[in-house]
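Researcher: Structure prediction, please.
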Amino acid sequence: MAAPAGTLSPPTLRQILERPDVWRGDALAGTRLPGVPTGFAELDGELPGGGWPRGGLIELLPICDGVGELSLLLPALARVSNDELSWLVCIAPPYSLHAPAWSAGGVDLSRLLVAGASGHDAAWACERSLVAEGVGAVVAWLPDARSTVLRRLQLAAENSRTLLFVFRPALCASQPSPASLRLLLAGEGDQLRVRLLKRRGNACATPVLIAVQRPVPLGHALAGSSTSAPAARRLSQSAVA
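Model: Predicted structure follows.
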């Protein structure tokens, strides 16, 4: 029976399966935008789009500071700052950024912005950065973010081309999350053990082991020094609006 004139025909199964938020249970989802290569082929092969997905919240859950969590991000951040000439925004880092480590990882420090904030202000800065022109990646530390805040960030990221990485404690792994990608990170000798807790696609039962570069002790590109990265700019809330 034909649909009445002026009405839309229901989508076909093929059209439904072509949507990036729909996938078969035995395969990875498609993506609206190409992924940004992580710099680690073994991890790219496990991610929808073949890299860090744009258009979604990427939640990173290290079991402790210094397992190599920022070294995991440096190849992609270097690509964004150099190849795409986009800004990188770091929000509420728990320690001062260690400029030599970021520079050694290939990041253009002249494209790095640092926003000191906490609580609701940090989440607000994330949302504003996602809609700011020229921002290619946001890295934020939101240890106490509630599910409603994470949901807002996920929705904001869906309307953006910006990479959004949010660090939260590993204890949050047992809590539900609206993030499109969740990774539990742990050190294993000279490698980083990456367990994919959630991705848009079939489950990944086997952790991915990655040999990350650790340019500073503990593999952490953060330092306890009170001196911030000299080439980075520290922004107030109004500066990222």
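Model: The domain at 31-232 is CATH 3.40.50.300 (Rossmann fold).
Researcher: Thanks, that helps.
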